[in-house]
Amino acid sequence: MAKYSLDEGRRLVSAARSSIELFLKDPRFEPEMVKSTLKEFSKPDGVFVTLRHYPNEVVRGHAGFSEPIAPLGESLVEAAIAAAFGDQRFVPLSHRELDDVVIEIDIISKIEKIGGSEANRLKRLSLGRNGIIVRHGTNKGILMPEFPVRHRLSKQQALEEACIHAKLPESYWKQPSVEVLYFTSQHFIEETPSGRVNEMVMNKLHAPRRGAANS
User: Fold this and answer.
1) What is the pLDDT of residues 131-164, one digit of tens each?
2) What's the pLDDT tens digit per position in 35-82?
3) CA dist., res. 128 & res. 204, Å (int)
4) What is the domain class of 112-183 according to CATH?
């Protein structure tokens, strides 16, 4: 995965918000309007967009692509619109709510399949660094790297949660027939709705720390 600068991260988050704003004004708007401003983000990368209520950080929408199926700029716009209006857990975002949510994006690195024993899968997982994908047949569950940190999960609990997201029994990550994959990501997030964007990293206490890219 390319290392994106903080300025680039800020541009991408701003584009995600613009996409949502334009869709709210007219659901028939042409996404190419925003995609055309992101031509330099031509490298295919997976990306997820998450909306969170501010300041309680409760998720309001989440969508994206784990695989690099299109240029990052194009995938970002599609993910932003899907997070705001296509997450089936929620009703579509309203004009009023947009001013009360922060936008965050995760740019996904190359995904690595983790085989072997239960012990190896635990050993290879680095909390705060690795995201998790659990896949079995048509069932798929994804955890962003920050999820276990936010919820103070152990390695085993994180793998169990990924199974739950995949609608599988929580112990299925132990089965050799179940695919377990790890990835890393760059995580950019607004401090406040429409506010300053920083890159989030994890400190040694496994707590979110924002603004590290400026230090």
Assistant:
1) 999 999 999 999 999 999 989 999 999 999 999 9
2) 999 999 999 999 999 999 999 999 999 999 999 999 999 999 999 999
3) 9
4) alpha beta
Whether the link from the prior residue into 55 is cis, omega within 30° of 0, is yes
Fold of 6-109+185-214: Glycoprotein, Type 4 Pilin (3.30.700)
**CA–CA gap between residue 156 and residue 206 (Å, rounded):** 16
CA-based R_g, the chain, Å? 17
HEC string for the chain: CCCCCHHHHHHHHHHHHHHHHHHHHCCCCCCHHHHHHHCCCCCECEEEEEEEECCCCCEEEEEEECCCCCEHHHHHHHHHHHHHHCCCCCCCCCHHHHCCEEEEEEEECCCEECCCCHHHHHHHCCCCCCEEEEEECCEEEEECCHHHHHCCCCHHHHHHHHHHHCCCCCCHHHCCCCEEEEECEEEEEECCCCCCEEEEEECCCCCEEECHHHC
Strand partners, 129: none
Q: CA-based angle 97:98:104, to the nearest 5?
A: 120
Domain boundaries defined on the chain: 6-109+185-214, 112-183
